[in-house]
# Entry
Amino acid sequence: MINKSRWKILGLLAVFLLMVWYTISREERYIPLFDFHFQDEKMTCPFREVEKKAAQLIPNYTREPPLFLHLKDYFWVKTPSLYELPYGTKGTEDILLRLLAITTYSLPENFQSLKCRRCAVVGNGYRLRNSSIGEVINKYDIVIRLNNAPVHGYERDVGTKTTMRLFYPESAHFNPQTDNNPNTLLVLVAFKPMDFMWMETILHDKKRIRKGFWKQPPLIWDANPKQVRILNPYFMEVAAAKVLKLPVKHLWKLKEKFLGFEKEDSPTDIIVRSWLTEEVFWFNVCGDF
# Structure
């Protein structure tokens, strides 16, 4: 019964996400599968095109909150977070302090200096295989990969450029070295306190945690701490309260709907993209390589 309920929830969520993505990126922003037309660099940059569409969809939309958590925000906290993960950091401040002490929060200088942030989002869809669009993907200013979307061995189809990879422990089954670039930002999207604990044990090389996950995360994960970022839970809160339009007092219930599912186009991902870029192209369908 529980599994059936979860699949119903997943089905409803998938339909909703499709509608959200269509709203944000329709007009000439969607690239039909196997009909990829890269617009040359001479075209005018659609300045904050995605932000404008996000503002139409999300009430009181703003880019002001920082994308990643800052260490300074957790010393002598005057206004503690109201929510637990994944919508806030209530109850996880201590472990978060330790984690933020060895990671960082800034965006690379070359990223901030981009005149136009045209973004390609790449998932691990099966039908990308044999598509031969790797060179097209590499031409975008920003390439965001989701979860364990592979690169090594599929370069011709998915490209080699990875600006940022969003993941959570259960979806971290990619090689941080061969499936990313040396300067790729590894962005942890935390759903529960165990996610912070897993990351801490990995980066500090402590005894690994095996329980508390719906799927066993990697026990060996060779990542540079300076490339790791922690996504601000604010974006999860906005996804729940403003995109899914759930009453704030019911946010804790939504957490159960998120946990246990690998989402290639979640509301959170949509909001992150709108914060980062002027224009977004989507290279992904459901399924695995």
About this structure: The chain has one domain: 67-253+267-285. Strands lie at 118-122, 142-146, 164-167, 185-188, 228-230, 279-283. Residues 2-25 form the longest helix (24 residues).
